Amino acid sequence: MATPTDENPNLLTVVARMTAKPGRERDLRSALEALVPITVQEDGCVNYDLHVAEDDPATFFFYENWESGAKLDAHLAADHLVDFASKLEDLLAGGSEGLVIQRLNRIK
Fold first, then answer.
1. Residues in domain ABM (predicted)?
2. Fold for domain 7-105?
């Protein structure tokens, strides 16, 4: 099965991880699901896939690919992401520190 970086290994891959506060799992999931249709329309977004941990329904991941770091930075500054970021203290275990974003470059 092909991945986006099979066709373009220069894409910037992002994995974002976050865990909901106890009792806020549904709220976080809804907020994350609402980001998807907006984000996939953004310039430079190749894919923006939301996942939930198989063994922990409170932990969510985005697997994303972007045409460049600048396009990702524009996404992170977009109104819908700024609005979502304003809710992190209420939704995430660890507040805003509970969101871990890792930028990855494909090696092989």
1. 12-100
2. Alpha-Beta Plaits (3.30.70)
Helix (H) or strand (E) holding 91: helix 88-91
Cβ–Cβ under 8 Å, residues 87 and 94? no
Which residue, 77, 6, 1, 11, is CA-closest to 46?
11
Q: Residue 19 and residue 100: Cα distance in Å, rounded?
A: 10
Could you give the CA distance from residue 106 to residue 104 in angstroms, rounded to a whole number? 7
pLDDT digits (tens, 9 = 90+) for 52-91: 999 999 999 999 999 999 999 999 999 999 999 999 999 9
The pair of three-digit structure tokens given for residue 9, joined into one six-digit string: 């290994």
Q: How far apart are CA 60 and CA 81, in angstroms?
A: 16
